[in-house]
Amino acid sequence: MSDYIMVPAAAAEGIFKDRGSKFIGYIFRVEAEVNAKELVQTVKKQHPAAVHWCWAFVGGFEGELRKSTDDREPSGSAGKPILNAILKAGLTQTLIVVVRYFGGKLLGVPGLINAYSEAASEAILAAGAAKLVLQVPLFVACDYEQQHQVIRIAKQMQLKVYPDVYELSAGICIEMPPLKIIEVKKQLIEARFDTFHLKDIKLYPC
User: Fold this and answer.
1) How buried is residue 205: exposed, middle or buried, by Cβ count under 10 Å (0-12/13-18/19+)?
2) Which residues are CB-contacts of 52 (< 8 A; sequence separation ≥ 6)?
3) Does the domain spanning 133-205 belong to CATH 3.30.70.100?
4) Does the domain at residues 4-127 carry the CATH identifier 3.30.230.30?
5) Which of 49, 69, 164, 203 is least surrounded by Cβ atoms within 10 Å, i.e. has the fewest?
6) What average pLDDT does the segment 88-111 reach?
């Protein structure tokens, strides 16, 4: 896992037109698929006269969650081009919905692929990208008298350390980039700390 992710800097829209058809791309930062589906419904309500509402979602901290739909367009002509535009931009936690108003002329599959890709790309360009740094808290169970050993390990690796008041057992947290998890665990084991666990990842603007 990388030490950061790229997400849309803002909600935005982009427009592409071809042979009378109008494609409006909407981009949002969305952390979960369930929220993405809610936003798709919101966009549908805003454009009841449109003929298609195609979308793609990329989520997770490594873009491992992927979902797309052609919404009755020919298979692979809408959802996949939108998805590829998100992946090409290196974004995650991203939803793009492209609304199509039919202009009376068929575009063919190549034309549709280009139109949905261009509308998605225009939305991405309008939104811009924001870099979020990942930090993983590791809770180390220990008595107060032992905390100085954990603090020493954290300082040697230039990591943030703080007491965790939400845990049931006494202990302290070390906050680190994902790439340092293995080394920190190794240091703790060598110092005879054997009770620790990772907590939910935190995101900080860069």
Assistant:
1) exposed
2) 71, 72, 73, 78, 98, 99, 100
3) yes
4) yes
5) 49
6) 97
